[in-house]
Automatic annotation (TrEMBL):
GO terms for biological process: proteolysis. The keyword Transcription regulation does not apply. Keywords: Hydrolase, Protease, Serine protease, Signal. Belongs to the peptidase S51 family. It holds the Pfam family Peptidase_S51. One of its GO terms (molecular function) is serine-type peptidase activity. The keyword Nucleotide-binding does not apply. Gene3D superfamilies: 3.40.50.880. This is Cyanophycinase.
Amino acid sequence: MRLSTILTTLTAVLFTPSALPHPTSSSLSTALQNASNTTIGPENGHLVIVGGNLQNPLIYQKIITLAGGPNASIIVIPTAGGDPTYDQSFPAAATLRSLGATNVTVLHTYDPSVADTDEFVAPLLSASGIFFGGGRQWRLVDAYAGTKAEAAFQSVLDRGGVLSGSSAGASIMGSFLARGDTANNQIMVGDHTVGFGYLKNAAIDQHVLVRNRHFDLFDILKVEPGLLGIGIDEDTALVVAGNDAEVIGSTYALFYDGGFWSREELSELKNLPPPEARFYFLKAGDRYDLGQRKVVVSATLSGGGDEF
Ligand SMILES: *[C@@H]1O[C@H](CO)[C@@H](O)[C@H](O)[C@H]1NC(C)=O
Ligand SMILES: *[C@@H]1O[C@H](CO)[C@@H](O)[C@H](O)[C@H]1NC(C)=O
Ligand SMILES: *[C@@H]1O[C@H](CO)[C@@H](O)[C@H](O)[C@H]1NC(C)=O
Ligand SMILES: *[C@@H]1O[C@H](CO)[C@@H](O)[C@H](O)[C@H]1NC(C)=O
């Protein structure tokens, strides 16, 4: 159940005096607990969600490792890119090979009737890793949504494999498809709004700092306030297992959860904007609980040292 639905239901229950049977206090508290810790990450397997311009070999290595090592079968899907044709030399595939992956296959079609055939899906059935390249995220939807290929992507995750992607390949992982408009890449709530949903109740934006996109997710959160907004900068990734997300790579991931966190002491003295206008940054090594929508604070998070 979506958070907004739960809250609407709760509001209706709390403020409708006698028409409805009174909920027991335990069912109310369960709903409240559900609302605050709904699982939104995958039950099995991992996601590596990269904010575009992937260069850092450590992120590629992470994908290879989570797929099961150099001999794992990794499928690269270049379809978001929009080129007329693709061959096995697609750059992300070449980079994975140069970093030791021995069995990398580029798989592509724009035609959903092809994506729905057993022949097309066959290589996915023995794969333990997928990498979705960049471009326009709606092309992935038009080619694969509702097909056997989409089901096979999910099955890689269900078997404990890794689904990864950069730029468009990051946004496609959200249940809400950010920047999904076919006209241009600036419309946040476009003519395609449903992603593959490996992260539920979430919208994922990319290239966020390099392109000064940090206010853009509010276009989505204004119309879908129950969503968790996640913005990822270039060459930076979120590695997700269950509800645990860890930042790796060069810069920052931004979280739009209505809250605020700082590694700085006395940050309660800050004059923040209202909750619906807030975001904050996490860096490599920082961890976030996607269910609780909170930073996982550990000893290594505190800091600033003696620099003021
Ligand atoms: C809470 O979530 C559980 C598991 O998804 C579901 O079975 C239950 O009905 C939910 N309870 C309420 C009160 O929403
Ligand atoms: C939510 O968290 C509470 C407290 O940590 C826990 O008791 C409850 O089982 C959790 N609910 C779900 C649906 O995970
Ligand atoms: C990968 O496969 C090759 C050839 O079959 C084999 O020699 C090698 O030991 C394998 N590497 C790993 C890490 O399993
Ligand atoms: C390489 O991956 C393909 C596609 O998943 C698979 O069919 C094939 O068996 C794999 N080859 C090896 C040597 O593991």
